[in-house]
TrEMBL record:
GO cellular component: chloroplast
Organism of derivation: Prunus avium
Any one GO MF annotation of this record: AMP kinase activity
Entry keywords, A to Z: ATP-binding, Chloroplast, Kinase, Nucleotide-binding, Plastid, Transferase
Family according to the record: Belongs to the adenylate kinase family.
Catalysed reactions, as listed in the record: AMP + ATP = 2 ADP
One Pfam match: ADK
Region described as Disordered: 16-37
Official protein name in the record: adenylate kinase
Assembly and binders: Monomer.
Protein's UniProt keywords contain Phosphoprotein: no
Length: 305
């Protein structure tokens, strides 16, 4: 009876591929079982699996096709687990709120590309370009640099391959609702907006005592983070906008604009106490980023399942 089923099956398969219905040749006697022996269990398994496989094509029972398992190697494509999208983070705060320090700690742990709008502006000023000259005039008066200057610099940096691959940490930008709207229109949306909050009297003290090493680019503070050697101390400079008069102008501008910016990102904003030591500040930020990554990884795994 098993042989009759096999012949019918071979005939059906031959007809399906357009080949003549030829009887199967008798195998070599030395390899075939005696005519009176019972069918092998592997033959039953193959027939049963093939019948099950073919029944999946029944028009009366539309189903998702699932190939039967076989001990032989199959050439089916292997689908890997989905890779989570890189993080896109914005961090904001008044001058000397500790953004630079926290950005360094964040990038060290999470590998994000640090994009500082202030550094981009200062590089433009140092180049002596017309945009740099206009930017310097605005900064000296404690005003925001025109959007058309800053937006394009930020856009170009965020579109660099390293930013797209590793994710980015946008430091000190946007500083106004118009800048936030411009970024949104360009397709840049953060996953998290971090706001550092520090009392104004502490901010002024931090700014006035801040010094820059022009060789290494490292920021020191005469009270909180003094230079390691006298040689370094002798070459430190004060940024032109780090005087008490200018920082108060900048703080006024910051307070006038921060609420408008927060309204654009209120559903993804966390407020962090920036007046404590840097380790405690980072603990607050690290907790939020870890939760964000865990949630994103869980989502990626569920989509890949």
């Amino acid at each position: 009876m098993a042989c009759n089923v096999n012949v019918v099956h071979q005939a059906a398969m031959a007809s399906a591929i357009g080949q003549p219905n030829k009887p199967s040749q008798r195998p070599n006697a030395s390899l075939s079982a005696p005519s009176n022996s019972k069918p092998k269990s592997c033959c039953k398994l193959l027939l049963s699996s093939q019948s099950s496989f073919i029944s999946g094509f029944s028009p009366s029972r539309p189903q998702t096709l699932t190939p039967f398992r076989s001990s032989r190697a199959q050439n089916f494509p292997v689908v890997g687990s989905a890779k989570a999208e890189p993080l896109r983070i914005m961090i904001s705060g008044a001058p000397a709120s500790g953004k630079g320090t926290q950005c360094q700690l964040i990038t060290q742990k999470y590998g994000l590309v640090h994009v500082a709008a202030g550094d981009l502006l200062r590089a433009e000023i140092a180049s002596g370009s017309e945009n740099g000259r206009r930017a310097r005039e605005c900064m000296e008066q404690g005003q925001l640099v025109p959007d058309e200057i800053v937006v394009m610099m930020v856009k170009e940096r965020l579109l660099q391959p390293d930013s797209k691959e590793k994710g980015w940490l946008l430091d000190g930008y946007p500083r106004s609702s118009s800048q936030a709207i411009a970024l949104k229109e360009l397709g840049f949306k953060p996953d998290l907006f971090i706001l550092l909050e520090v009392p104004e009297e502490i901010l002024v003290e931090r700014v006035v005592g801040r010094r820059l090493d022009p060789i290494t680019g490292k920021i020191y503070h005469l009270k909180y983070s003094p230079p390691e050697t006298q040689e370094i101390a002798s070459r430190l400079t004060q940024r032109f906008d780090d005087t008490e008069e200018k920082v108060k102008l900048r703080l006024n501008t910051h307070h006038q604009n921060v609420e408008a910016v927060l309204s654009m990102y209120e559903d993804i904003t966390i407020k962090v106490n920036g007046s404590v030591n840097k380790e405690d500040v980072f603990t607050q930020i690290d907790s939020a980023l870890t939760q964000l990554l865990d949630k994103r990884q869980a989502t990626s795994e569920s989509l890949a399942a």
